[in-house]
Every structure is written in C-alpha cells, then in structure tokens.
Amino acid sequence: MEESIYKTVTVLNFGCSANRAIAEGISGTLKQSGYKISTTDIDADFIIINTCVVKQNTEHRMKDLLLSLPDSQNVIITGCLPVVMQKWIEQHVPSARILYPENANEIVSLIENRPVNSNFRLDSQIWEQLYSHKRVLFNPLITTVEISRGCLGNCSYCIVKHAKGHLRSRNPFSIIHEVRDSIKAGSKEIWLTAQDTGTYGWDRDPKTTLPELISELVSLQGHFYIRIGMMTPYTMEKIKHSLIKQMNNSKVFSFLHLPIQSGSNTILTEMRRKETREGFIELVKELKSKIPRLVLSTDVIVGVPGETEEDFKLSESLIKQIKPTIVNISKYTDRPGTTAAKLKSKIPTKIKSQRSKRLMQLCQEISKGELQSWIGWTGSVIIDDQGTKKNQLKARNMSYLPVIINNSQERLGTFQTVTITDTTVNYLMGTINE
Description:
This protein is an alpha/beta fold and 434 residues long. It has three domains: 8-111, Rossmann fold, CATH 3.40.50.12160; 137-372, tm_1862 like domain (pyruvate-formate lyase- activating enzyme), CATH 3.80.30.20; 378-432, CATH 2.40.50.140. It has helices spanning 17-32, 56-68, 80-84, 86-92, 107-111, 124-127, 160-164, 172-184, 210-218, 233-247, 265-270, 277-290, 309-322, 349-372; strands at 8-13, 36-38, 46-51, 74-79, 97-98, 142-146, 148-149, 168-169, 189-193, 225-228, 255-257, 295-302, 326-331, 378-386, 393-396, 402-405, 415-423, 428-432. β17 (415-423) and β18 form a beta hairpin. The longest helix is centred in the last third of the chain and has 24 residues, at 349-372.
C-alpha cells in the first residue's frame, strides 16, 4: 500500500467544553486541508496542545507536558496558556510555536509557515470562522457549540477573564447553521458552551438572548437534546422567565450549571460576585418548582483568602438547603494577575484540605439521596457512549444524568426506554424495557 502524502497532526485537548469545541474546530480545519488527524500519535509530524490554566494543578500539568516533549518535535501551543503565560513558553519551550485561540482558524497557515495574525483580542467575526468547516468530533453523537467567548464579570480569583477577555457573542445564524448541519450528520446532543451562557447576545446589536437562540434551535427538525452550559446565577436572574419556558421543551435537558462559589455574602463580596446567598436560594427554589426533575450543578471554592470557619459553615448550610446533585469543589490557589493573588490573608493548606474533605463528604451524601430518588423511574434515554466494561453502555436521561446499562447490544445514538434499578454515588443504573 502506498504511503500517504499527507502529514499527520496530533491534537491534544485539555480543559473546558469551550476548549473541546476549539480543538474539534482546529481538527476539522486541518482535515479539510488534507492533514491526517490523531489524538494519540506521539510521533506525528505536528503536535498541537490546546492548553488550560484555570487551576494551579492544571497549569502545572500543562507545563510538565510541554517540558517533556523533545525539541525536535513540531509543537504548536494554543489555548489559555499562551495568552496569560507567553513569556514562560518563550523561556522554557523556545522551539514551540504559539497560536492564539482567537486566530485558531489560521492553523493551516501557521503549519505551512505563512503569515498569521498576531493579535489575540479580536472580535467574534474572526474566531467564529473556526467553525465554518465541518469539525472532527471527539464523539460523533455530541456537538459542542461555542456560542460566545469571554464574559462580563470581574471575579477577583479568576484567571479565565485574563485569558478569554470581554464578552463576544457569535452570530446566531452561524450557530443555527452549525447545529442544523450537526443534527443532519447524526449528532444527538448539542452542548451550548461559553464562559457564561446567560450573557449570550448581550453585546450584539440588535441584542439577542440565550432563550431566543434556544427557541430557534428546538424548532429544528430531528430527535436531539440541547444541554445548556454554565451560567452565573446573576445572569440567570435576568433571563429566567423566558429560559424556564425553553427548558420545559422536550428537546432541552433539565440541567443547569449555576456556580455560586461560596455560601457567605462576605466572601461573595470579596470575590466580586454579583450574587447573594439569599438570592441564590430563592432562585434555585423557583427553578426547581417550575422545571420538572431539574438537576442542579454548582461550584464551590474553599479556602479563599479571608474565609473564616463561619464563612465555610455558611457554604455547608447553603449546600444542605439547595441540595445540588453535582458540586464541583475546588481548593483555592493563587492565579497569576488576579486581585485575590495579592491578598495576604491566605488560608493554610491543611485547613483548605480539611474543609474540602468535609464539604465533599456532605455533597456525596446529598448526591446519593438525589440519585436514589430516581429508582423506579421509567423514561427515555439517549445512548451516547460505550461503558468501561464489555457490552456496557452509557446513556443520558432527560435531566442529563448518566445512566449505565449493562449487558446490552443496543446501538449508540439510539433512544431507548429504561427503568432505573439502582444508583451509585455518581450515576444511575438502568435496564432497557423490552
């Protein structure tokens, strides 16, 4: 067999679902230009690393990976690391080339040594060009759609604003076109992603909103689900009435990711968050009363500078009140360039670890109870992946909860009726109704 004349490119992706969309877009752009795409070949002609630096341990992981690569390899670094730590790359990985995520659509030009725009703060009309080609999806049943980039917040601890910049929303028509094509190609789940999906369209003229976008998407033909990505409780308040209406559509997962970060108003103020403890509790109460079987996910950071034991207990009591099914717990770490990093009232590592463990135990107990409430439920699920064992499948129910199905030969991408028979701490277990 004749050897391919095309060069191979390995795309390694890390971080959030927005990074996933960017990596898939880069892969699609390269494939259209004749390159062979891999996610595992360490001996490829080019290696593209789409980096994340949202947490300190993630940053260290990225740096360790970059330092382990031989100088002889053609390495291209994109994602957040080049934006916030370019000097580190130039000093420690001088042979690597940088591709700012704003200009990821120019990947072919970079590889082929043609001029590439060096500005990394451009408008959405530039970065959304990345999605004008058919993407190479990590999972052909799932299309992650980046609807906006950047945010309107200014949180004291967050490095993402430094990396992603101010809000820039995509043209709604390009999003609708991309989703329509993805559904025609076989995708069954459409993930809408952004740093804050709730602010989608606020920067556009004329202004549009996330509920308006979803209304257009659910009108598309096909059997599919839309998953709404993370949004701040503050922006959720601005659009809640129209969004609740859209979330009661059968094509939208009953799932929301609303990070609160702390149960203490004192700490929320220090974080420069726009939410309050009381407002969040009322918001969750309303959402749960108006969206059947709503699954709530939230985030909590423990050990923020100045956090007292009383502040932490307020976070514990908040979790007990709102009963989220999923809680992402992070131990605070300084991020370069943030206001919080300059504060002197740091919490000792031992105390942060103790608080994290306490909160994790509480969240697991609550999650266990929330999941057990599904036992006996019968309804439709979408099978979207293989499980870890032979003849094991992973599915998602109407609330985006994972359902593990054992000893089944059903095809990926099919909708099946299941009955939930058991649970673990992390997922439901079900059997397909014959």
